[in-house]
Amino acid sequence: MKKDMITNVTEYEAIAKEKLPKMVYDFYASGAEDQWTLKENRNAFSRILFQPRILIDVSKIDLTTTVMGFKISMPIMIAPTAMQKMAHPEGELATARAASAAGTIMTLSSTATSSVEEVASTGPGIRFFQLYVLKDRNVVAQVVRRAEKAGFKAITLTVDSPILGRREADIKNRFTLPPNLVLKNFEGLDLGKLNKTSDSFAASYAAELYDRSLNWKDIKWIQTITSLPILLKGVLTPEDTMIAIQAGAAGIIVSNHGARQLDYVPATIMALEEVVKATQGRIPVFLDGGIRRGTDVFKALALGAAGVFIGRPVVFSLAADGEAGVRKVLQMLRDEFELTMALSGCRSLKEITRDHVLTEWDRPRFSPKL
């Protein structure tokens, strides 16, 4: 497949698979254990159908929205994905430029191969910083302060990873960060010694450094080290949603970590509506996991999401074609989403309603006679 023949986001994955070393491709592509949730993140979207409205003047369509007080061009944003320089030499810097050009938000991973300062130096743009809480709280405070100083606008706290899920491809490949790369946000900080002989660098890194004692009280602690709003990424239940609001979360990202943590959790699109209901409109809810089409974006918004984040499409397009690839992915999703809105009879995001979709838990409106 030639780059100029690409007509949809999914096609970048095949190019990335061809280009990347097996170890790197598998790291990005694989999920946990049986990878049931990995497949379900996609499959669940295919069971949600549209109920389009017709004969509405859709000559003008407005995709703009506001996220955490920032006006962006569309409700499609970039999720944090680790170690992007494994995909392309420019890594996170290319992704940051592409997001900025598209007028949308990029989330930088804690475990990025570019630092918050380097990403900030690519030029203006709205950026969030994804945080893993390490055992050494001084290191955490230092990194958060650096992100804030570099102009990042929110902290996206990953809450589903006290330890890393079992990703068997990484174990088989004995996944390790290529020797020419470093985790730039922690460069020069004393993180103790990592067990280099383990099956997977990522798993041993997490086991050694992530704080497994992380709990609700720590949200309050993070609020003492930063004035930035805190989004909780990895919420899947209405119960946790209500506790998150009490704990002072500014927003929620319904996420199952790209199906890389606990296998057999529901697809995020299946968990979304109950989480949205539990917020009672008090804080915005976003979604990541399985978004590959503009139709997926529309379905998420119809079920109550304020926006979506994309992960794998970014690293695969980055691997295939650098910054241009990421720009094209954002543009294709935008175009497909706009088309879906037009064909559903929606001229703005607020016109996308629950009535525009039909899910398996909706009662049929009529029963066909046999």
Account of the protein in words:
It is a single chain. With 370 residues, the protein is an alpha/beta fold. The protein has one domain (9-188, 199-359): TIM Barrel (Alpha-Beta Barrel). Helix content is 39%, strand content 12%. It has helices spanning 11-19, 22-29, 36-46, 91-101, 116-120, 137-149, 168-172, 201-209, 217-225, 238-246, 268-279, 294-302, 312-344; strands at residues 49-50, 65-67, 70-72, 76-78, 106-108, 127-131, 154-158, 230-235, 251-254, 285-288, 307-310, 357-358. The strands form three sheets. Strands 4-11-10-9-8-7-6-5 form an eight-stranded parallel β-sheet. It has a two-stranded antiparallel ribbon with strand order 1-12. Strands 2-3 form a two-stranded antiparallel ribbon. Helix 1 (11-19) runs antiparallel to helix 13 (312-344), helix 4 (91-101) runs parallel beside helix 13 and helix 10 (238-246) crosses helix 11. The longest helix is centred in the C-terminal third of the chain and has 33 residues, at 312-344. The N and C termini lie far apart (47 Å).
